[in-house]
Amino acid sequence: MRSLVGCLTLILAALPVMAQTLPLNPRKPTGFSTIEQRYVYAPPDEGHFEFPLFPGSGTTGELLIEEPEMCNGSASARVDYSKSEGTVRVRVHYDGLPYRMSAAFQEDRSTPWNQFPVSVTEGKWQIWFVGHIFDKYSIFYYDALTGILIGNEYDVEVEDLPPSAIPVVLPVLHMMQLTPHFESDPNTLVADVDITKDYHQLLDAEGSGGVFVAYIPKQLCKPDELTLYYTDNGLPVDIAMDWDNILDSIHAGYGFALATSLEPDPKPAYLKSRDNIMIGWGGGYPFNVPDGYTSNTLTGALSLRETCETHEALRFPPSIYDFCGPVE
Length: 328
What we know:
By secondary structure, the chain is mainly beta.
């Protein structure tokens, strides 16, 4: 106890000095190694990077597609970008992309805010460009009387909100539909995608600014009971992603990702500009799940891949807390 008190005394005594010497504005990350004196990943303005994709790289509540031809195959992506030319080029190669596969959830995964297909028959694929992985923020409106989520600022008309509506600012992921439908060769299960976008205005295949995705409370009284939320119908083009900002996000440690979704063809209107939550090949940069491993969609814990089969990811657990319930 005496040594603990002594340590605390030293720490408290040092706080004024620490407060004077610690920088108020930390150096902006750039991907440049001061030890190696070079850009170790994602140099600014002009460059490229490559990363592997893995089967079933989805997240909580999604259908993770892991078929034998995928586990026995491979996929990889390369991103080339040039600020001077104003382009971002994405190339993805698949060896083992199922041809017109069918898949289904055991039950409807739709929510009061988003509708999803229960099943897909002879589906095709789309690639999703995932930037700003929860380093952006958006306003969500909740009813202060009930605590229930009303909707995102881009899905509601503010003048139509009830007087009890309150704004809550929450982190979002920004993604956009990189490709229209595509499929593999039915004989080889090989597919190659090559698409180029505008460096400063990354519009989706529908011509919109993409979508925001969030994992947020369904009710403020139960802040630990989350739901998946997508904005609908595409975001305005003036808030489309800019590759400069995505590089900043990568350098700050948030990363970048690509995901491949199984989609109905044709897509229903309610899926415009957003993905179906049935995910096959996917991967991130600069961090990724090591080859031969899989990650727990709730905790992120890694484990050796022991099976290869399409399955439903773990769902969000029910709430532990209820701040509006009776006090015991």
